[in-house]
Design goal:
- By secondary structure, the chain is an alpha/beta fold.
- It contains 8 helices and 5 strands.
- It has helices spanning 14-21, 84-90, 103-114, 124-137, 150-155, 158-163, 173-180, 190-208, and strands spanning 37-44, 54-63, 66-76, 118-121, 147-149.
- It has a 5-stranded mixed beta sheet, with helices on both faces.
- The protein is globular.
């Protein structure tokens, strides 16, 4: 895996060409157990898409409606931007003894890992925008994958009507953990939150009663 940058070359990197090719043809609707989902999370220096940066990326696959613990990705990025205020949340310090990689290497590894999988995130717009900004900084396009937001899916569960006085979609991941009885032991690490998001997704799907005859399109 070599270093690349559109800033220094007119050539589009091969991994991006390969990624786009996965979306050239219209994807067929498949039974949910045949679809690869990837739950992912980012830890960042803050919430500004322009000025803040991704510090770590955690991702884990769901295959055949089961979390596949051998099919996961964990990346720590070199810190060019530092915000001491957010260290209290994610615990990633600038001089941590971590094996860090460049932003360009990280986005290449992430794109190769996700392929054309359906991506799952909690408050997905934030993570999608942060990843798209990385792509933009390196002269590439935007993510083509379909996204699912566990907060939005959670709001669709029938039990919510009876357990909440008002229906909304801005549920925190902690609220999902409490309601769905998921351990919070690894909260606020990218890989931990990715795993929690995957667990939440499967529990929400069970509540929505999606069975083998249903197609993935029911989720959108």
């Amino acid at each position: 895996m070599g270093l690349w940058s559109r800033k220094n070359s007119k050539e589009v990197p091969g991994f991006w060409v390969d990624y786009l090719a996965l979306f050239d043809r219209k994807q067929q609707k498949s039974p949910i157990e045949k679809v690869r989902f990837v739950a992912f999370d980012t830890e960042t220096t803050g919430f500004d898409y322009i000025d803040d940066r991704v510090l770590s990326i955690g991702a884990i696959a769901i295959n055949n409606k089961t979390i596949d613990v051998v099919d996961q990705l964990e990346l720590y990025l070199e810190q060019d931007v530092f915000n001491s205020d957010t260290v209290e949340i994610h615990g990633i310090r600038k001089n941590n003894n971590l094996n860090t990689i460049s932003e360009s290497t990280a986005i290449e590894m992430f794109i190769k890992y996700i392929g054309n999988s359906i991506l799952i995130a909690h408050h997905a717009n934030f993570d999608r925008n942060m990843m798209n900004k990385i792509l933009e900084r390196h002269g590439l396009g935007v993510l083509k994958n379909k996204f699912l937001d566990t907060g939005v899916l959670f709001s669709k569960t029938k039990h919510l009507v009876y357990r909440s006085h008002r229906k909304h979609t801005h549920y925190s991941l902690d609220e999902l953990c409490d309601d769905l009885m998921i351990s919070k032991s690894d909260r606020h690490t990218a890989s931990g939150d990715a795993f929690i998001t995957a667990m939440a997704f499967l529990k929400i799907m069970a509540k929505l009663k999606i069975d083998k005859t249903d197609k993935v399109s029911i989720l959108f």
